[in-house]
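Hi, here's the filled form for the chain we discussed.

Project: internal
Contact: R.S.
Residues: 207
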Amino acid sequence: MTKLAIIACVFAAQTSAQAPPDYGFNFTTIGAVGNAAYNGFDGLGNITGRGSVGYEYRIAKNELRTSQFVDFMTVLGGINPDFVIFNQPLEWGASGRFQPDGSIKFHLISQEAGDWPVSGFSWRLGAMYANWLHNDRAPTLAAVSNGAYDIETFIRNPNGPGFLDQTTRNPDAKYWIPSLDEWLKAAHYDPNKNGPDDGGWWQFPNG
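And the returned structure, exactly as it came back:
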């Protein structure tokens, strides 16, 4: 089975024979299974040995757009309006309005705003979005609570500093936030850099 991923938001996804819907993402398939890890210059010392991925997956080539996020925020606005008030993206092209029942419904601020990128939101919100996609964008609490990540783990560590968030996706996730290895490979690894089937790493994203 092949997989699919998303980040900040670019997301990733499965690439099986029955791949999940694209939902407007411009996905590209990342092959070269088992590629060599990066071993070049690493000024900060945190990526040497990373970037090898042992499976095929797809990753979005473009940022998450407002038109892809607005319905999700409306679902959250119906489930927990208080959460949504304090967890909206800092930069996007939508605005929310309270409804008579106390929920919040979001709408595009202009026709062009649907293409505006979405940024400035938490990893947790991105994880809930991946869950929602995994569950066919159902307008329910269950749909945003699990699938790729279990939001019940989104708590402080009672025995020390930090949090207990499940940061590694579930094995059967259809969509997820790409790992560092998945993102590095998609952005910088070229399976034909040195010739046909002779891969290597570029310092800058290879597009």
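Let me know if anything looks off before we file it.
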